[in-house]
Backbone:
């Protein structure tokens, strides 16, 4: 009989002993402190709050204890500090009771660079004999309260590996994934994280704004002002749609090609250096890291271009032009203009088809860059989509541009005031990227590049490092 | 030599001892029972099935044992009950063998409110000396079988914290995230979960249907019936597209403003009460919880509006009107109508540009509400998108509405049968929301509100609670 | 005092003892080996690298040790093999030192079927006394380095359950989810996984290409070649857009109906067999597994159809036709053609409205098939969307097709060269699916089917299996 009782007693005993050790302490009974406590209790920890006024600190999650700071600190080796940095003072007076404790600093600031040192560094200075770990600060009280933690990532940093591991164990139990950012000197970076505002979008958006402004004024001069000066016609109404609908595709195409330019440059750099083990220059690294955002901004412009194109036929000016053209024709009793130009029909239709196909591929590329879609692709599939399909998209969109101007390149009237039209300017970068990419696809170049990317080095000492690298995954 | 063997032996021994304790029992060999057993085996547990006929219960996952219920129950302290509630009877007769066991009830019902008490409560009544935990019931056999558990959430509830922890440990090993719903009284809620059908979409859809119906009949009377009665023209063909294309943008704009109205009301309520620590009235809470769905329904209508607009020029009636207008003009030999109205061109083009921009921002808002995209944003980024960009979208779409009627507000002919046209009605709510939001942005109001949201209270007792709250995160 | 020190000492001691056992060994210092080591160190393991030249193997993650292979192997019971298969030779000579070790083989090949046996099987043959586990090979060095592991799935296979569990424990600590693929014979499948290129998209894409090609040539003959032969008109310019815009909706509708056909066939098969416990034929299984992809390809074609339709009015040939029609009318001084046909207006508008609604529902279906959206739906919600809404979409799109030809079915001129037009052909499959689905919805059929799907069997032996199954979940 005692033999048979054993299995279950083992498991239950296991629970009991766990309950003994897993006492966690939280300093601070604000929104974050309370939500964190609730979640810890739900994950099976016991929780004790440290408070200045244990008897009047408002509603706490059921099951949690409240004590004064000293008693609370004594009951656990891990203390979560959910207090504003401005009020850390009391921790200094508590310092003797915090010796050898792990203090997890969850604080955030409202703005960057308000204080000369990170909150966690400041805390470590106040309580030098405790071990401070910075982390968990990217969680919001709201997400904690609603249990939306599955798969979320938290950062940790600290000088003690053991202290970090204790904090990481708690995070893992909460269903979080931990990313170790190294020593406590990374605290500033971690504290700045919740304050960041689309840092990786900044460069692409700047490029987009710059290109848009340049081409807007360039086309404004060539189209509207030229017409006003030379032909004394006021066509300013065209600014809203016609002009915008020229600027958008131009910016979109250039930005799409800027997605693929750094990859091509990197490949040539690797070919020139004969190794992949040298770091790229900083500007290239930064450029490569924002390619996805660059492409999504390009898609935004392409999307606007598509919608602007769809509304063309319902515009007042377009309808007016259509009607007045018919009426004019009738009045002058011409019969010739109604000759149907087969080449023109083929040309414009090809132009539209290339545009539609390009837009379709654009959307496909954007869909696979959604985190949940991209995450379900194998590495080979992702590469296939982003590289092969990406370059195809660039090729088709560039062709879309060439077909637009196919019969205008050699006409003199195209070059108003000796300036080339916008679509010619915008074809330069994509054409360069495509030609360079084509060079890279030549069998001999491609073979060398593949070998370099598999770890081969041109100038390696015959025996040591290179050999090692070619062996290992 | 024995010194060197140590490290590896520690790890392997660890495995052995784990294998001893981690025996789990499953009652029921149906689809769910079998899939669960397969998954548990893959996660390293040993599995024993309890069955009435251990020798004829069909194919089970390889590695699992089958016994009669009594023997199976004896071998593990944790038993998964994968049996329909209708057949719980046999558990009552087993009760003596289930004492002190943890019974995890996975059952679901086919409909809501069939039984007076939750399945788990019923089970607890049948076997009072066991500890019942309700949970895992949101998993489908299909997801279990295909290992699609990563990051999924399961609910647990039960009266014993230890029993819940034992069940939660198993869930964590399976790669699931656990959300504790409290005591066994929450079992009903957990059992209803798999039966819910878009509960958070109900209110937005009701509002949408109500608004659509109202504006449809309102415009039907003003447009079609008015024309029939007063001018004896049959323009019923307009119902399909022209009328719908008036109703859609109206409903879309109103629903978008209804997304932002509760936030504004909440802010004024907080200002009036001088604290954020009082609960909002229930209706406001419910309203705020379905803002996302409200916005997505609004986008749906905006999407329909966009497509309806794009097909305008290919409609038979529109082409007919265009042609007959030209022909009429020619016959009467007028020359004046072909005067190009620059203001009209600017007006309609601005109207289209505002609409396109608004739609573009709409889509952007919707994209960030995708779980995988929103989850990758920091709190500040999410707030920026949903609040700043959201109000901008509302502003632009409202402007789109104003520009539509810019020259019609003062014309008497606009007010057929003394009723205002639909677009005027739909501008009321958005205008109110925008004006209120503007008031909130005034520096003095904004400052007070920010302080309140950081925990400050106007009528606080100087010393205790408020001070505490301002200190803590 | 010693009483009070206890809680914290327990936790810290726990860390120390863990640190003693959790030593892991990595053979290979390439990109993958280094990234894996970095991640393991971050998760709290101690890492030792085995290298042929411990003193010149390049930069390793800080905190890791490097030794020669023998010493490294001795220090851990679990060894990650991050070496190309081509260089496994040295492991054979190491075999005596690898006895009873768990070797986790992470290697991938560059192409399928290069070697007669899987890398892991080859490794097991070289080192027969070690226990080989295949796995982790779907991780890229890039994902490891950037900590993008949350919620990712890795496959494991191996002949020893204990060895697999040791590897699985490491994976769990890294935040990965483990899917056990069984014995080492599954290694080939796991090694082929990173090389797969959209296997589940192959069948849908083949069907799409086949249908597109067939209908393209069919319509080319009926439209362009017929006009050239019979009427001696060159309307080849229509190929680019008009013809494509007929092919796309046809293929889209057929593929949408092919999404729902296998479900209907399966239901009839279950009705015929009277049980759900017999496996479907292989072709049906394969078909059902690619329904989602089938539907997404159908949406792609519908999307193209929509955009092709939107650009119609800005095409040169359409404008030309419009203008020349007006001019022709005027010249011949007709007055009758401008009669407004109310039926025609209703017909075309209904046609457009059905198309728009169908497209809208299409997009809705596609959105819920996004992993992150679908994952947040309950089983009942997912079924509601994919089945109810899916069949509604099919019904509306089919109606769209019928309305297109509503007044042409009985005209003889429709059947050029005695062939039916494309849209008639494309209505066959959807109509069949809808009729069959309607049959399944008949109360008597539906009741039987529901019972079968709940486990009831028509020809069951009264007492044993069936009863069992009806009892269990």
Residues:
């Amino acid at each position: 009989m005692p033999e048979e009782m054993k299995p279950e007693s083992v498991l239950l005993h296991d629970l009991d002993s766990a309950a003994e050790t897993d006492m966690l302490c939280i300093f601070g009974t604000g929104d974050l402190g309370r939500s964190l406590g609730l979640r810890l209790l739900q994950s099976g920890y016991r929780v004790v709050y440290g408070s200045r006024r244990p008897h009047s600190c408002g509603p706490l999650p059921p099951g949690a204890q409240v004590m004064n700071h000293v008693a609370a600190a004594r009951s656990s080796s891990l203390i979560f500090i959910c207090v504003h940095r401005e009020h850390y003072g009391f921790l200094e007076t508590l310092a003797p009771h915090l010796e050898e404790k792990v203090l997890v600093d969850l604080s955030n600031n409202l703005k960057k660079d308000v204080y000369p040192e990170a909150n966690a560094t400041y805390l470590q200075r106040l309580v030098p004999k405790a071990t401070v770990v910075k982390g968990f600060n990217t969680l919001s009280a709201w997400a904690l309260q609603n249990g939306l933690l599955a798969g979320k990532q938290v950062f940790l940093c600290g000088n003690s590996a053991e202290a970090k591991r204790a904090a990481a164990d708690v995070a893992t139990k909460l269903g979080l994934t931990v990313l170790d950012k190294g020593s406590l000197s990374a605290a500033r970076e971690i504290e700045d994280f919740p304050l960041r505002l689309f840092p990786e979008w900044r460069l692409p958006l700047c490029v987009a704004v710059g290109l848009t402004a340049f081409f807007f004024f360039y086309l404004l001069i060539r189209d509207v002002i030229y017409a006003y000066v030379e032909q004394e016609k006021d066509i300013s109404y065209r600014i809203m749609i016609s002009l915008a609908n020229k600027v958008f595709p131009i910016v979109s195409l250039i930005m799409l090609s800027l997605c693929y330019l750094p990859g091509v440059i990197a490949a040539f750099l690797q070919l020139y250096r004969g190794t992949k083990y040298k770091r790229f220059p900083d500007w290239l690294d930064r450029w490569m890291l924002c390619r996805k955002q660059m492409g999504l901004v390009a898609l935004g412009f392409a999307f606007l271009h598509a919608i602007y194109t769809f509304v063309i036929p319902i515009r007042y000016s377009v309808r007016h032009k259509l009607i007045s053209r018919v009426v004019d024709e009738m009045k002058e009793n011409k019969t010739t203009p109604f000759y149907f130009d087969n080449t023109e029909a083929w040309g414009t239709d090809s132009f539209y088809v290339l545009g539609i196909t390009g837009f379709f591929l654009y959307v496909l590329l954007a869909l696979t860059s959604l985190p949940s879609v991209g995450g379900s692709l194998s590495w080979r599939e992702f590469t296939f989509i982003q590289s092969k399909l990406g370059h195809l998209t660039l090729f088709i969109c560039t062709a879309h541009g060439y077909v637009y101007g196919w019969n205008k390149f050699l006409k003199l009237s195209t070059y108003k005031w000796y300036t080339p039209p916008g679509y010619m300017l915008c074809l330069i970068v994509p054409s360069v990227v495509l030609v360079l990419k084509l060079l890279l696809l030549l069998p001999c170049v491609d073979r060398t590049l593949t070998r370099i990317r598999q770890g081969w080095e041109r100038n390696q000492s015959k025996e040591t490092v290179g050999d090692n690298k070619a062996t290992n995954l």
